[in-house]
Amino acid sequence: MVRFEVEGGVARITLNRPSVSNAVDLPTAQAFGEAVTAAAGDDVRVILLAGAGPRFCGGGDVRSFLAASDPANYLHELATLFESHLRRLSELPKPVIAAVQGAVAGAGLAFVLNADVVVAARSTKFRMAYSGIGLTPDCGVSYLLPRAVGTQRALELALTGRTLTAEEARAWGLVTEVTDDDAVTRRTGELAESLAAGPALALGQAKRLIRSSFGEGRAHNAADEARTIAAAVTTDEAQKLIRRFVAG
């Protein structure tokens, strides 16, 4: 359901249900949570999300909804559990890269919105898709999407069923970079290696400051920034890089 492997400081979390477009059911959400826990380890400096097969993630596994004896309770448990694991992922003080291809729909958008850098294959399509089966956004999509693209654009996606191309998603702020379809794996691997070789504390804390600013006032954020940079300057990593910069 979910593969996890670590090499060179890069943790790769791969959704591995290609026969169902990597749709998420309860066991998959649980396995994803285990992978997030493992990615919190000190040996991991960067996290790379991917989906096996031609499509990144088609959202929730609709067949599992129908098979549940109590669909309402099942969906409540799935949405609650999956969102909590995605939020834990976004709160980890290390960069998260998503490599997406084919289709990103429904709760699949939550992976994109909780990643820090998103590289999309040029042929990728993005769609909310919930209303097409009479359902509503979950897994933090209704919270994160308007913060990424703006309220009116988020409403357009939710209400009209509009599908975005990869280039449109980049222009709207959902995607960081668009590559040729056959270059996504190589490009995200390069980014992961580059970030893994970078200053881990500085990158992780920069991410934390930006993401936590959603829920904090400016004065609180400014105080947090000041505390964080003061602590960062004392680290061996920063001291080494500062001396290198001054030396020219």
UniProtKB/TrEMBL annotation:
Residue stretches in coiled coil: none
Molecular functions (GO terms): isomerase activity
Keywords: Isomerase, Peroxisome
Enzyme Commission number, as recorded: 5.3.3.18
Broad class of the protein's primary localization: other
Keyword Iron-sulfur: no
Organism domain of life: Bacteria
Subcellular location(s) of the protein: Peroxisome
Keyword set includes Glycosyltransferase: no
Gene3D superfamilies, sorted: 2-enoyl-CoA Hydratase, Chain A, domain 1
Pfam families: ECH_1
InterPro entries, per the entry: ClpP/crotonase-like_dom_sf, ECH/Chromodomain_protein, Enoyl-CoA_hyd/isom_CS, Enoyl-CoA_hydra/iso
PANTHER family: ENOYL-COA DELTA ISOMERASE 2, PTHR43684
Family under the similarity heading: Belongs to the enoyl-CoA hydratase/isomerase family.
Protein name: 2-(1,2-epoxy-1,2-dihydrophenyl)acetyl-CoA isomerase
Lineage: Bacteria, Bacillati, Actinomycetota, Actinomycetes, Pseudonocardiales
